[in-house]
Amino acid sequence: MRLPVIFIFITVVLDSMGIGIIMPVMPDLIQEVGNVDLSQAAIWGGTLTVVFAINQFLFSPTVGGLSDAYGRRPVLLIALLVMSLDYLVMAFAQSLWLLFVGRFIGGITAATHSTAGAYMADISTSEDKAKNFGLLGAAFGVGFILGPMLGGLLAEYGSRAPFFAAAALAFANMLFGYFVLPESLKKEKRRAFDWRRANPFGAFKQMKTLPGLMPMLLVFLLLNIAFFVYPSIWAFFGRAQFNWDARMVGFTLAAYGLGIVIVQGVLIRPILARFGEKITALFGMSMHLLSFLAYQLMTETWHVFAFMPISVFSAVAVPALQGLMSNSVSDNAQGELQGAMSSLTALATIISPFAMTQVFSYFTNSNAPVYLPSAPFLLSALSIIVAFYLFSRWKPS
User: Fold this and answer.
1) What is the CATH number of the domain that holds 249?
2) Is the CA virtual torsion 178, 184, 186, 190 positive or negative?
């Protein structure tokens, strides 16, 4: 199963780098096609991001449900083909409404993360699921590093170049999967597609029938809301707290992403083997909390790098939690579960940027009761405390 796992890994990398690869050129592209200034372009860019996240939230259970009914292979291959065409639409866009169409479709195709997770669950034993979900987390970290780096390099060839590159990568991966990806879900384990379950609200309602899973999904949501403080305010925090330029912001994010890859791709396996999934998840949450509190004390750039080897160990929490939840549902419900988790991740990408930027703005403006650029990390710490409490009281059924 080596080649299929490589395909799944690449698919998740492409999902995670999909936003990053185009991020460096989005301001120029929006100004170009919309004939607006930079401040207006920022507003349009934020709106495009919300459209993308909302569709990912709405359609993740649908894509997951389709994979439970028709198999993982066709869903993944079709989604990659549509993703490739979507990037081409944005590459040739001459108006803002075409960019909206592109981001609208992109949010749907990004929902393939749920099917990738279901495929990994299909081919994994119950003992290996958390480890293999850690591999998917490492893939996310790779995309987190490569996306902005590749987008910045290609921007020298024009604002359209990253879109053509993303389209080529998605199409090449689709061809690769066509030849190496076998179907992982046997026909006798499939179930009929049901619209009542194939939406985020129906999927969450259906999860209530599985004992103990709803609190775990809430823990998963809280962890993601806390984690997304990094892409939400890191650049602003770095400038306000340490006077970083854009290059230093990118360098610190790449270093953090590299740490996540090492932890989730290599170190999580011995940690899980030694401590098990529940203790590993609690350890990861503890590292999250320690990191968010530590930012309140950091005053120099070297403090960030000195503490980074500790903070990256927080990345073990989500894969361990995914493994616990995946082992709680049947084989023919893996796509539905992964779809629900993908929707929660997308929901976090809607909630967290709004909340974190509002808190940052409040504590850095001239009327703030105290100047505290690190205040959003305190909000993330509160989210982790609630998640820790809920998870520590959970008992597997």
Assistant:
1) 1.20.1250.20
2) negative
| Domain presence at residue 159 | yes
Place of tokens 């070297």: 302
The number of folded domains in the chain is 1
DSSP per residue, 176-228: HHHHH----S-GGG-----TTTSSHHHHHHHHTTSTTHHHHHHHHHHHHHHHT
Q: For residue 241, what is the DSSP state?
A: H
- Per the CB < 8 A criterion, the answer to whether 213 and 391 are in contact is no
- Secondary structure (DSSP) of 116-174: HHHHHHHTS-TTTHHHHHHHHHHHHHHHHHHHHHHHHHHGGG-TTHHHHHHHHHHHHHH
Most confident of 132-141, 192-201, 291-300, 354-363: 291-300
- Please report the pLDDT score of residue 302 as a whole number: 94
Alpha-carbon distance of 93 to 34, in angstroms, equals 10
Q: What is the separation of C-alpha 221 from the centre of its chain, rounded to a whole number of angstroms? A: 12
Note whether 89 and 101 are within 8 A (CB): yes
Return the higher-pLDDT residue of 343 and 100. Answer: 100
Q: Could you tell me the pTM of the whole model? A: 0.67
Two structure tokens written together for 112: 């393939």
Q: Is residue 233 within 8 Å of 381, Cβ to Cβ?
A: no
Token pair recorded at residue 210 = 């599985």
Residue ranges making up the domain that contains 47? 2-181+200-392
